[in-house]
Every structure is written in C-alpha cells, then in structure tokens.
Amino acid sequence: MTAHAVPQAAVLSEDSRAIARAFVEARRSGRALPTYPGTPPDTLDAAYAIQDAAIALMPDEVAGWKLGRIPPPLDAQFDAGRLAGPIFAASVRTAADVTEFSLIEGGFGAVEAEYLLLMAETPPLRDSWTVAEATRLVSQIRVGVEIAGSPFPGINDHGPAVTASDFGNNAGLILGAEVARDWAGDPGALNDLTCAMRIDGETVGTGGATHIPGGPFDSLAFLLNALSQRGLRPRAGQWISTGAATGVHRIAIGQTAEADFGPHGIIACRAIRAEGGTP
Fold first, then answer.
1. For residues 54 and 167, is the Cβ–Cβ distance under 8 A?
2. Could you tell me if 10 and 24 are in contact, meaning their C-beta atoms sit under 8 angstroms apart?
3. Is-contact 149 269, C-beta < 8 A?
4. Is the pLDDT of residue 3 over 90?
5. How far apart are CA 117 and CA 138, in angstroms?
6. What's the pLDDT score for residue 11?
7. Distance between CA atoms of 153 and 151, rounded to whole angstroms?
8. Helix residue ranges per DSSP H, the chain
9. Residues 65 and 240: beta-carbon distance below 8 Å
C-alpha cells in the first residue's frame, strides 16, 4: 500500500478503478475527457472511494484539502452540506504580480475567492470535532484563490458525487496575504472579511467569510469529521481551502481573474493552457 492509499481503494470495482486511472492519466497528460469515464457514482461514499484510489495513483504529495458547498436540495439527498477533495503540492503557488495557472483545454475551469487555514498540528482521528475545537488547530489564516478544474467539462453538472470523484474539482491553490486575527476558540472571528471576484475587469461575484455556510472554521470541522470516516486526517502544514466566498466563476484559457480582498490585497491570476503534467 502506498503512502496515499486507504482501505476503501482495495474494495473498488474494476469500473471504479478505471475511473480513477482515467482521471489521473487525463490530468497528467493535459487531455480532456468529453464524457464521464465510466458509470458515475451515485453516493459520496462511492465517490470518495474513487477519489482515494486516484490519490494513491498521483505521483505527488497532498498539500491540503478543499471544501465545496453542496446546495439544497442535494445536501439533504446526500446527507452532507459540503464535499472535499485533495490539493496537490505541485499545484500550490504563492501569489505573484500575475500568477499563471494551467487548465485543460476542453475541460472545466473556474476560480474561487477563498479563506485558507494552515494546520498547526496533525489532529487525532475522531469524527466528533466541534467548530470551536477546530479553530485551535489553525496556525495561520490567508486569503487565496482556489483553481477549480477537471478534464471532464461536466464535472459540476451531475451532482456532488461526480464532482467529488475527481479530486473535488480541484486544480490548484494560490496563497495570498496573511490575515492577522486572534481567532482561537472564536468561530466568528472572520465574519467581517469581505471580497469580490473580477474576470477580465468585470465583477462576477461579491461576498465574504459569512457567505461560507457556518464560516471557514465550520468548513474545517466538517473536513476533520469527514476525513476521519475515511481513515484520513489533514496533516500539520497542510492548507485548508474553506469554500467559495463569492461563488464558482467559470474562466477560459487566456482570461485573467482578480480576487479583491480589500485591505488584504488583490490576487491576480491568468489561465493558461495545460501542456502536460498535472494542472
């Protein structure tokens, strides 16, 4: 068993293993998948089993985890308000004047303004984390941009299980400025933070920390509990991307986005074509 493998991967059907291989190979080669590469999972458990198998195939370390909202009425149907996916080390960048990120031509691409939490320690495995407890595991908060991306252009059109099966539709993370705040034990410490997203100069969304259901620390508590059920946990030094604060905004190759976090700065980024290698 590799460092990434988890028990669920061992009981996958051959079709599910093939789905995991197809997504990993498509991402590594920069090739789109016009249709879903197999029978789509219909539960989050099935989706995460595919995700776990794909993580085991990736020649890269997990550097963090992303959360994405599951809206009503799907949240009730899937008994979860969020879905999770891994962020790989090669796709994490620190914001520059204009940070370039790669998308697969013919696949899916979007940008999301996010609030990022840095894990101070590796927590024990248990599935009863409260929001207040989760805040005490954080050593730093930053603003950032999650790059949503998949070889499958319909990744968000077939429900949360399909989205979760391909790394939760993550293709990278851009780290912005630190948010100086005393948050320990205070889940509402970030409630005053606001942001906006522009694409090619046009505002496409506004919001802030309160636009994330329950707030960023609620996302972390959800992740701790959800990963524990898979025998996983975020590690010290990993980044948690807590959810879209202004929405999920489609972006095309060649376009430029600006996530404006007010006093915490602007993160400018440009989508370029993936030429191979993991975007």
1. yes
2. no
3. no
4. no
5. 6
6. 61
7. 6
8. 14-29, 44-57, 74-78, 131-135, 160-165, 216-229
9. yes
CB distance 193 to 179 below 8 Å: yes
DSSP character at residue 90: G
CATH node for 7-273: 3.90.850.10
Tokens at 34, concatenated: 């016009």
CA-CA distance, 14 to 33, in Å (whole number)?
19
Q: Cβ distance 231 to 119 under 8 Å?
A: no
Distance CA 222, CA 24 (A): 26
* H helix intervals, 6-148: 14-29, 44-57, 74-78, 131-135
Q: Where are the domains of the chain?
A: 7-273
Buried b / exposed e along 70-101 (16+ C-beta atoms within 10 A): beeeeeeebebbbbbbbbbeebbbebeeebeb
The mean pLDDT of the chain is: 93
pLDDT digits 0-9 by tens, 22-65: 999 999 999 999 999 999 999 999 999 999 999 999 999 999 99
- Compute the distance between CA of residue 83 and CA of residue 164 in angstroms, rounded to an integer: 6
Q: Of 255, 260, 257, whose CA–CA distance to 269 is shortest?
A: 257
CB atoms within 10 A of CB 15: 12
The Cα–Cα gap between 107 and 111 comes to 14
Helix (H, G, I), strand (E, B) or coil at 168: helix
Residues 6+ apart with CB under 8 A from 256: 98, 199, 200, 268, 269, 270, 271
Token pair, residue 217, equals 């620390």
Q: What is the pTM of this model?
A: 0.93
State the pairing for strand pair 99-103/266-273: parallel
Q: Is the dihedral of CA 75, 77, 80, 82 positive or negative?
A: negative
Question: β-strands 239-241, 62-69: how paired?
Answer: parallel
- What three-state secondary structure class fits 142? strand
